[in-house]
Design a protein that fits this description.
The structure holds two protein chains of two kinds. Chain A is mainly β. Chain A is built from no helices and eleven strands. The N and C termini of chain A lie far apart (37 Å). Chain B is mainly β. Chain B has no helices and eleven strands.
Amino acid sequence: EPEVTQTPSHQVTQMGQEVILRCVPISNHLYFYWYRQILGQKVEFLVSFYNNEISEKSEIFDDQFSVERPDGSNFTLKIRSTKLEDSAMYFCASSRDSTEETQYFGPGTRLLVL
Amino acid sequence: RKEVEQDPGPFNVPEGATVAFNCTYSNSASQSFFWYRQDCRKEPKLLMSVYSSGNEDGRFTAQLNRASQYISLLIRDSKLSDSATYLCVVTDSGNTPLVFGKGTRLSVIA
């Protein structure tokens, strides 16, 4: 069964450093998403991406964040200058097309900012 | 602001028990409704979609009341493997952001 994959599974970084989280969505999916979950809190939407551009973003997704689809398979989330409060689990998700409601989640990257 | 509210639990139930989860949502324009399951430190996984007519999948039954903006999930004959956090999720339509509740934690005890 096809699945969303994410790398790395864990990332530890120093405050102020840049991190890039990588995702490989399911191959025939057209819509891509990033969500985050701070420990003990709910899953929160960050950004959605379709047709090589951002389709929607939340207030969390400020200028420190960017997304990119550098090739036909990868979808990345970059945090330019990490803050302590960026520590969270980051989930990538994808969905097939405009008729498909189900978003399939990757296993997540646990980011710890020290 | 779009909100989804759930009883945080935890619900501790013996094997074989029936357990019910409730959820309310604030955005009356919401069109699609789901229950996801999340195991500790894992990703959310779709358990079932929720339809206005109600739907059942084995031991799981989901109900939607649009007038009250209320969603429920019933688990019958609970198993140890049902122990997880159950997330109520709504969205405006396909491909729009999912709005998650904080989840209700379930522990099924032998």
